[in-house]
Amino acid sequence: MKKLVLLLGFVAFFSISCDKDDPSNCCVIMDTGVTIKYVNETGENLLEKDGALSIKDITLFHKVDSEWEQYFKGNLDIPTGLEEVSMPEGKYLGIATSLDVDENNISETKIRFSETDEDIIKTKLNFSSNNTIVDKVWYNRELKWERTNKNPRNFVIVK
């Protein structure tokens, strides 16, 4: 009997969770991360080179209401908003970009490598059908990625 009640509850939950007549009320996509491969002038991956770049020394800030706030969300799997991502081309830095936007839907994220070395990522966000998706990415004011095709949101920065 308990199994039947659980099964009916499970079926009822899924039958009312998505309205077939209103697809915008069904699913939410949050696709705002950026992955960056940092290399030196000779092309060496700085995340793979000893003593060059360590994720534990990097701090992430989001611009919220025109003020920089250090990013930390203790309830998330990646509380600092930074993670090392292994790809076939080597290690990349995965970055959780800000969701707080200006009047043009542009968000700003600051990456602090040291007290004297900071870079800015700007993202143009698209908020449609309950989704939040990045349309463009600038790194230190240079356009690095645009959602014009299915290319992954990865790029290389020389530091």
What does this structure look like?
The protein has one domain. It is 10% helix and 45% strand. It contains 1 helix and 11 strands. The strands form 2 sheets. Strands 1, 3, 4, 7, 8, 9 and 10 form a 7-stranded mixed β-sheet that branches. The radius of gyration is 20 Å and the shape is globular. The relative contact order is 0.19.
Distance, first to last CA: 64 Å
Q: Unreliable runs, pLDDT <50, ≥5 residues?
A: 1-17
- In N-to-C order, the SSE pattern is HEEEEEEEEEEE
The structural domain count equals 1
Mean of residue pLDDT? 86
Q: Strand portion, in percent?
A: over 45%
* Overall outline: globular
Helix content: 10-25%
Radius of gyration: 20 Å
- Oligomeric organization of the protein chains: single chain
Structural class: mainly beta
Give the tally of β-strands.
11
Count the helices. How many? 1
- Largest sheet data: 7 strands, mixed
